[in-house]
Amino acid sequence: MILTMSELCIKRPEKNPKGAELELNTDWSIEYNKKEDGFEYKCRLKTDGEFPFKISVKGKILNNKFNEVPEEVSLKILNNIIEIIPNLLNLSKEKEIKIKMPLKIKKAESQMVAS
User: Fold this and answer.
1) What is the per-residue pLDDT across 8-41, written as a single tens digit (0 to 9) for each?
2) Which H or E element spans position 113?
3) Please, which pLDDT band fits residue 109 given cuts at 50, 70 and 90?
4) Residue 8, SS3?
5) Exposed/middle/buried for 38, CB within 10 Å: 0-12, 13-18, 19+?
6) Cβ neighbours, 10 Å, residue 65
7) What DSSP letter does each residue of 31-100 carry, written as one string?
8) How far apart are the C-alpha atoms of 61 and 46, rounded to whole Å?
9) What are residue 111's phi and psi, to 5 degrees?
10) Which among 44, 102, 52 has a CA at the least distance from the CA of 74?
11) Do residues 85 and 46 lie in contact, with contact meaning Cβ atoms separated by under 8 Å?
12) Is 40 exposed, middle or buried (0-12, 13-18, 19+ CB in 10 A)?
């Protein structure tokens, strides 16, 4: 069996919490659609409390031999998402980028040839 992720969406709060330890209440669901080559899934995970955020993941389950998705596959999808949450939150936090004006952009060779 192969689990894929094709789309990922995260909606996080604007400010990070001050404490390093958080207790998160989690609500999650997974919807499945049977296709010829396996199943498509959409997993939604939502937390509340000190640091509320939402994550939505779309993907496929390929090379399977079942007509209905077993519970252990749902738990595997959920566990994979929970493992990557800290990285997603770190990657998605606001970062300051300073740009000096006026901005000088060099033309790429392909653009120079075409123009």
Assistant:
1) 888 888 777 676 566 678 899 999 999 988 999 9
2) helix 109-114
3) low
4) strand
5) buried
6) 5
7) EEEEETTEEEEEEEEEEESSS--EEEEEEEEES---SS--HHHHHHHHHHHHHHHHHHHHHHS-------
8) 22
9) -75, -35
10) 44
11) no
12) middle
Contact call for residues 56 and 9 (beta carbons, < 8 A) = yes
Q: How far apart are CA 77 and CA 95, in angstroms?
A: 30
Token pair listed for 39: 């199943």
Question: Which tens digit of pLDDT belongs to each residue from 38-94?
Answer: 999 999 999 887 778 899 999 999 988 888 899 999 999 999 988 888 888 777 776
